[in-house]
Amino acid sequence: MNIKATADDKVITIYRNISLSLTSLMYLLDHTGPSVFYKSLLIMVLFLFAQVFTIYYRRLRKWPRVLMLAVSIEIAGLIVLTLFTGGYDSSFKLYVLNPVLIAAGSLSIYFSWSLLFGYFGVISVFSYFFLNSSGKTFAEAVLDNGNLFLVMVLTVIVMQMVNRIKRQREAANARTNETMEHIKSLYHIVETSSQHDFMNIGQVITDYVVKLTKLDKALFWFAQKSGEPAPQSRQTGWHQEEERFLFSELEKHEHEWRLQREPVFKSLPGLGDFLLMPVRMSTRFVGMIGVKLEASEGLEGRRWYIQQLMFLSELSAIILERHELGVIENRLIITNEQNRIADEMHDSVSQSLFGIVYATHSLKQTWRKMSESELEEQIELIHDSATKVAKELRITIYSLSSKKSGGPTWLGMVRSHLKSLSRLNDVEIELKITGDDFSLPYPYHKALFRIISEATGNAIRHGAASRVDVELSLKPKWIRLSIVDDGVGFDTDLLWTESEDNTGGLGMKNMQYLAQSLGGDFQLSSSENAGTRILISIPVGVAELKNA
Predict the structure, then answer these.
(1) Which positions fall inside the Histidine kinase domain (predicted)?
(2) Does residue 545 surpass a pLDDT of 50?
(3) Residue 99 belongs to a domain
(4) Which of 129, 183, 296, 448 is deepest in the core (most CB within 10 A)?
């Protein structure tokens, strides 16, 4: 198994090689002991073993117990080497810091100190009894080498301090990354929910409950709403045949949920233990967000889930309230526009039509008594009035139609956006449109513009494309959109894996949601250095039938 070397691994390898080279050089220059040939042979063997241990330390860093055994074996070998090359006078006496530093940086504090003091004890005792040619006492021998021991102790202390700072930095980086992912997920929830089919908003929320809590199963149960259809209750993680039983059990406790304002732990028969959080708008109770708890979860983990569900509950309430306010605002806009049109028609067209009707009625009563010239004059007046009414009506219609009045159309806004994107990024964007969007409902306009904007932006920002081809076909029953770029491409399997792991794929996931919310199909194909192709097919009218 080939393990990629980290920066720490490279530093340790360089340090081991340099320290072994220096101690070996000192050992060779020492004229006492074996011949140069035997010394050279010993050094070659040491270098070989050093490389072997370095490789195994890198591979064993995920298995602390096995790593402890490997470090202990190297320490034992170095003790033997030190004793047989002079004990306190050995050139290799400081080389023992190599495995000790490995232990101090990767293993427990107690283990590294045990290794160091074990090395001191064995070397001191053996040197006193077998290598004490000067007749020094044990205390004198230890004090004479006190500087050596002090250097080793201080080195281990410094290494442990550095390792503690490193762990704190890694923990801070992990918290920062987790916060960034949390913010990205928050953005994605709000962005997706603002574009997604409102009746399926529960699915968007449960998907992100699973993503944020890292649990396997989540639910969003909506209480029945009198007078108006409520969003559909949704779940993530259960099989389809289990879904009905899950929501029927929740409905049995509806009265209890409506009175609940705090998180509640609930055991549902046949389903397990749940953590549930009520979702309340400012005006009414909406439903419950919940997760199925694992049996192994401790108190600290449950506190974390409570915090996440409280946050998602408030966010869901804000999203739902914003949607309802948006619906009310749209109704008021339509009502105000209807009133404006009615007033305008009444003040101009209606009055003119009334004059024509009155003139026609009068002419019907008196035309037999009129001369031919008088009759012709009256008819001419009615004709002029009718022409004036037709002109006023045409002006009113043109003022209401952006297409006929020459105002900004949706297709014009798409062209303008892509033209600006092309000019600002020096990228060639080719837009081909067939068909007419005049009768296309507003939700389709909104979703298609978002998809086109997201896809072309991704091609430029992430794909480094120099050309993007956008083809949009608008037919009475089908919409087909193709977006192809010549960028660097990517591995699509890796994209969806990263999206599930909270590390990427937000834009693609959003486009997929938008297409599916209108009953459409989203297809993505790409490979490295071969560009990206997005194909979307949307049936016109399906979204309206779903919401009917």
Answers:
(1) 448-542
(2) no
(3) yes
(4) 448
Q: Considering Cα of 118, then 121, then 124, then 129, what sign does the dihedral take?
A: negative
Pair 453, 461: CB distance under 8 Å: no
Is residue 195 within 8 Å of 166, Cβ to Cβ?
no
Q: Quick one: tokens of 525?
A: 């194909």
pLDDT at 503: 41
What 85-88 contacts at long range (C-beta under 8 Å, 24+ apart), as own/partner pairs, is 85/27, 85/33, 86/32, 86/33, 86/131, 87/123, 87/126, 87/127, 87/130, 87/131, 88/123, 88/127, 88/131, 88/141, 88/144, 88/145, 88/148
Yes or no: say if 60 and 70 are a contact pair by the CB < 8 Å rule. Answer: yes
Encode pLDDT of 415-454 as tens digits.
888 888 888 788 899 999 988 777 777 778 888 888 898 8
Query: What stretches of 60-108 show up as alpha helix (H) in DSSP?
Result: 64-84, 97-106
Residue whose C-alpha is closest to residue 290's, from 192, 200, 223, 206? 206
Count CB-CB contacts under 10 A for residue 64: 13
Residue with tokens 């005792």: 125
Residues 6+ away with beta carbon under 8 Å from 134: none
Residues 100 and 204 grouped into a single domain: no
Structure token pair of residue 231: 């969003």
Q: Name the residue with higher pLDDT: 134 or 51.
A: 51
Whether residues 455 and 493 fall in one domain: yes
Going 365 to 371 to 375 to 378, the CA torsion angle's sign is negative
Domain range enclosing 264 = 196-324
Separation CA 223–CA 255 (nearest Å): 10
Mark whether 207 and 260 lie in a shared domain: yes
Task: Give domain status of residue 155, yes or no.
Answer: yes
Question: pLDDT tens digits for 368-406?
Answer: 778 888 888 888 888 888 887 777 777 666 665 555 545
Q: What angle do CA 471, 477, 482 make, to 5 degrees?
A: 15
CATH of the domain at 295: 3.30.450.40
Q: Do 252 and 160 belong to one domain?
A: no
Query: Which pLDDT score, from 0 to 100, does residue 399 have?
Result: 61
Residue 278 and residue 165 in one domain = no
Count of the separate structural domains present in the chain = 3
| Pair 418, 315 in one domain | no
Specify the range with the lowest mean pLDDT, choosing from 80-94, 129-143, 290-304: 129-143
For residue 427, give the CATH number of its domain.
3.30.565.10
